[in-house]
Amino acid sequence: MSPERRTYPNRRQVKVTSESLADRAAALLDSGYRLALIAGHDDPDAFRVVYLFVAARPDRRVELVLSTSRSAPQLPSLAAISLPAGRFERELQDQFGIEGAPGQVRFSAVGESILQLKARLRLAHKGIEKQAEGRLIADALPLAEQVCGDTTVGHALAFCLAVEEARDWPVTAENQVLRAILLELERLYNHVTDIGALCDDVGHGLAIAQAQQVREQLLRINRQVTGDRLLRGVIAPGVTRVRALPDPGALIAIGSDLRQIVDLALGNSAVQDRMDGTAVLSSADARDLGALGYVARASGCDLDARRDHPFSALTAGVVSTARSTGDVLARFLTRADEIQHSVALLGQLIAVRPPLSAETTKPTWLTAGSASGVGLVEGWRGTIAHRIEFGPDSSISRWKIVDPSFFNWPALTVALADTIAPDFALTSKSFNQSDAGNNL
């Protein structure tokens, strides 16, 4: 198939002042948008902050851009209307002059009952975003794969989508199909890993042993498809290359095996007792905190970028796995459901029979100079957001990364209120958020 220019959602930029920011943001939130990221830009003549709001059905994206004096900056807080905004604002302080402090998880408990848990993360910022400044695209791509070790495809793809939008880089439909296949393979092996780990935390040795066998099968499939067990080195702007397509029959067998493991675990009354009703995150709290991925869906918030912000038309009809109870059991079952849906989706994608290499050479019309782009991807933990700006020399001037863990870590502390200390490990595993993805 000949390369085609991808049709990107209309990303509208609106310049705001310190006085109008809160009203503009509140209007977007009231209209069904959610805050996806806040990115600070240390420009030569001003301090600039970009607030990205996104909405689904149809895919919509609005950026509020606030510039303020470097000598007397005025950045009004949005924490009163958006809890995630407060965390982004504290991150801005970290990145522009405040020294980091050791990460801590502190309990306040009476006996075994947890009254409060404070997760003070960011032991240190890795500086990945800063390392990309001044680099060309090819030099920054390896950094994207290293944002979070278990989310190689998700972050590499979000980076590429942002670059392709900024540079008007054409891609073929087959290219996007290959990317969707890789994304589902990454979702599969991580969800299977978590299913096994949750069984381990409740002491079901047979279930964890069987889950580990299934995980190893998936990692071997990853290596057959890409040459790497963690799916590294196969996605670049305009390019996706694999060695082989997965065997649909093997994936169906894995789905069947996993279903039996889940039935085995839930057939044990001790497993049900530990998971059912433990560490509940209500739908209201999930919405207020901006929770994403399986954490949000287990609490009744049906968010999925494969459907809400699709990069391939073949993923737009993804089936909802939303549940309502918001407890450990719901997060366990949401993963189990998503494994089956991923197996089915992979069957549809493989049936397209895309070529093993889909590449678009750098086109003659590729835009140069200053530009920006946004990439939204449903990683296995939830929606990943990347925003890239290029300077006049076509090098990266700013790269903002938001892993879903940034939104979901506060939800863990809320869910743990009024639980018991012995359930901390089980609850933490049911969320399974990333330190690496949070401490950028």
TrEMBL record:
Residues 201-354 form the NADH-quinone oxidoreductase subunit D domain. Keywords: Magnesium, Metal-binding, NAD, Nickel, Oxidoreductase. Its cofactor is Ni(2+). Transmembrane segments: none annotated. InterPro entries: ComplexI_49kDa-like, NADH_Q_OxRdtase_suD, NADH_quin_OxRdtase_su_C/D-like, NADH_UbQ_OxRdtase_30kDa_su, Ni-dep_hyd_lsu, NiFe-Hase_large. Mg(2+) binds at residues 129, 401. Pfam families: Complex1_30kDa, Complex1_49kDa, NiFeSe_Hases. Residues 14-99 form the NADH:ubiquinone oxidoreductase 30kDa subunit domain. Ni(2+) binds at residue 148. GO terms for molecular function: NAD binding; NADH dehydrogenase (ubiquinone) activity; nickel cation binding; oxidoreductase activity, acting on NAD(P)H; quinone binding. This is Formate hydrogenase. It comes from Kribbella antibiotica.
